Amino acid sequence: MAGEGEFDFIARRLAPLTRGQPGAYGLKDDGAILVPSPGQAFAVTSDTLVEGVHFPVDEDPFKVAWKALAANVSDLVAMGAEPKSYLLNVVWPRSGPEARMDGFVDGLAKAQDAFGLTLAGGDTTSADGPWTISMTAMGEVPRGRTPRRGGARADDILVVTNQIGDAWLGLELRLGAVSIDDEDARAHFDAAFSLPFPPVALCAAINDCAHAAIDVSDGLLADLGHILSASGLRASVDLQDVPVSNFAKAWLAAQPDEAAARLLLATGGDDYEVIAAIPEDAIGRFEQRCEEAGQRVTRIGVLEAGEGLQVTFGESPVETDALGFTHF
Amino acid sequence: MAGEGEFDFIARRLAPLTRGQPGAYGLKDDGAILVPSPGQAFAVTSDTLVEGVHFPVDEDPFKVAWKALAANVSDLVAMGAEPKSYLLNVVWPRSGPEARMDGFVDGLAKAQDAFGLTLAGGDTTSADGPWTISMTAMGEVPRGRTPRRGGARADDILVVTNQIGDAWLGLELRLGAVSIDDEDARAHFDAAFSLPFPPVALCAAINDCAHAAIDVSDGLLADLGHILSASGLRASVDLQDVPVSNFAKAWLAAQPDEAAARLLLATGGDDYEVIAAIPEDAIGRFEQRCEEAGQRVTRIGVLEAGEGLQVTFGESPVETDALGFTHF
């Protein structure tokens, strides 16, 4: 790394992000020592983000850091695991990493504080290539209580947290593919895309109540499809039931074909919300806990014996093949 | 990824590497669930390797996989932690990853079986850039028993496992910087460089006996320096005491300046052996356990109050500055 060396970057900028967690040893040792709390297991997940592939070239490094951590935390939330620690592996491009370091480390600091985890280790290097960030995040979940993709049962109620589609609108705005006059709406959609906030407040409710859960990264319908195929069940979703923000409602009102527009929101992805399958006897408790946590939750269907996902707009079936949307 | 998709690569090639470990869920879920055995903590370490930086362009992908896993396992061994699980994050170059996949997965399979750990998760993507591999490895160590860089005490005996310098000779051979006629010696040095085997059989002995330990990746003297500076101690090492292989002895015999040649072996790095500081009352037990495990162990010095590392060749002091070798 030109200028500031790897050692300095770790000691001066990254070590404070351990927040004194004893097992991280101030990033001075060969690794970290981590022990789950009594009765808890570690949920472990890992993601790699490459500049120009997973985020735009010259993206604000604060947002890169935030979104990288959010993507990992989102997986933990879907496993019902409270975020605790993460490891960070960065490959800096050889030309001028310094300009990005301040924003990147600031983004890490703000995101880890928002999501409740601390840095425990990792590796830093530089190469002639794109900026590449791998993160491994660890959370705690009571042993034997992790909801799984394949854990859903017939008659479970399908719910989704908060709202869907804002991140897709944020991406389309950046790409210039949609245009929106309302400045507040543009700012809202851009924040949904670049500074997503997974519902970390719901980890305990999810591991307490959900049979199955998955985070929405590929798109609501695609990720719901993963639950259906893993659980061997079918569902029908009315696009009118998919929760959207008031800003998205205003955009929908201006679209010539509401069904097609809602389908775009439901397939856009990058929402980092959670789809969960909740048994009937726990749905009241789950909704209560969401309300207490200040998180919106919406019922979007009921799981049934069979296979496949039927999508409707009111009474009308919606053809999903036309979007190149893979069947399950 | 051209041709074979990410999904197929994970399902067909990587999933078998979980060896049925239940918490890995066949790599089908958002993450893994890992629980240390009763009384154990997790040691967690992570490394990133980039083609053209950490391994040669067009290196045999079997060796890339082996060495990546060995580098992580080596950190665990130095923490006295039995290797258990690893996560793998790969960025494939967009052009032609297929040719490398068979060898890479075969290398992972052989290395994980040799070192005793299984795949638990990760992420796979492709980009226009160098082949990049991040690994995060987890091992188990009895709680509160991890030797640390800074844990050494005065009068502890410094030991190093097996032999030092063969990997450096393997690298120099590849670079054409040394020439050796003996074919067996060339094969031995190349294997030491490209297929290192950290002393995993010594994890329990290390956490039972060592006050401090570090793996030899930067070079014996540099890594010993890390123990000295972290522990606030000094040591004197006679290069004649540094254990070398019989092949390296033959090479040394042909060098005009044995002191200079031994210094190269002791600063070359990539050995993936362990330096440990063992208290006097445990040294007999440690040596006994090394013998039982079929691992050579050599005393190379005694820790003393003070600071800095003195290097000698017999009675003569050896100047280490000339090599650009940083003082501690």
Summarize the structure.
With 328 residues, chain A is of the alpha+beta class. Helix content of chain A is 36%, strand content 25%. Chain A has 2 domains: 6-142, PurM-like, N-terminal domain (60s Ribosomal Protein L30, Chain: A); 149-323, Alpha-Beta Complex (Phosphoribosyl-aminoimidazole Synthetase, Chain A, domain 2).
Description:
Chain A has two domains: 6-142, 60s Ribosomal Protein L30, Chain: A (2-Layer Sandwich); 149-323, Phosphoribosyl-aminoimidazole Synthetase, Chain A, domain 2. Chain A is built from ten helices and 13 strands. The first copy, chain A, has helices at 6-14, 61-78, 98-115, 166-175, 183-194, 203-209, 220-231, 246-253, 258-267, 280-292, and strands at residues 32-34, 40-50, 82-93, 118-127, 132-142, 157-161, 212-215, 233-238, 274-278, 297-302, 304-305, 308-313, 316-317. A four-stranded mixed sheet of chain A has the order 2-5-3-4. In chain A, helix 3 links the parallel strand 3 (82-93) and strand 4. The longest helix of chain A has 18 residues, at 61-78. In chain A, 53% of the residues are buried. At the A-B interface, strand 1, strand 2, helix 2, strand 3 and strand 4 of A face strand 1, strand 2, helix 2, strand 3 and strand 4 of B.
